[in-house]
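Section 5.1 Outputs to date
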Amino acid sequence: MMLLPNTLILASHNSGKIQEMSKILASLEVTLISQSELNITEPEETGLTFIENAIIKARHAARYGNMPAIADDSGLEVDALKGQPGIYSARYGGADSNKEKNIAKLLAELKGIPESQRSARYQCVIVYMKHWQDPTPLIFQGTWEGYILNAPQGIGGFGYDPIFYLPEYQCSAAELSEEQKNYLSHRGKALRALISAFRQK
C-alpha cells in the first residue's frame, strides 16, 4: 500500500479544477492545499505531451511547497483537427485566452465539418510525486469521448464543456450535474485510479 500523505498540494491555479479535484479526492481524508495558497507560481509548460507537462507542474509544486504534490494536465483532442488543441487547450485562443475565445476559435476551425466527423475526447493525466526529486512519479490517465457541437449549450462546468456533447446523455458536459460530471469525466477517472492506487493492499 502506498503511504498516504497527511497533506497534498494541488498543483493548479484553476479554481474550477481545484474544486472538482478536491471533491473527488475528499474520500482520501487528506488535507489538500492549492499551490496558490502557498504563493507558488505556475511553471512554464515546456513539455510536448500531457504527461510531460503534468510532471513539470507536480515537480515544481513539490519543490517549492516542500511536500507531496499532484498535478493535472488535460485538454481536448479533436479528430478533425489532428488532435488539436491538445496540450494547448487552455491557451488555444491566443496569448490572452479565456473560455469564450478558446471555444470561438475551435468552432471557427470546425465550421462546415459535419457532425459525424466532429468526434473528440477530453484527456487527463494526473501525476503524483512524493517529493520534487521523486524518480518514479505515479501517472494516471482518464479519457472521455464525445463530439463537438456547433454552438455552446449549458452554463455549468468550465473549459470546452458547453460544446462537448455526450450522445448517450443527449446533452453537453456543461448540462450535467456536478455529481454526474465528476463520475463521467476524464479527470474523475484519472483521480479515481489514483485513489485506488493509494488503497491497494
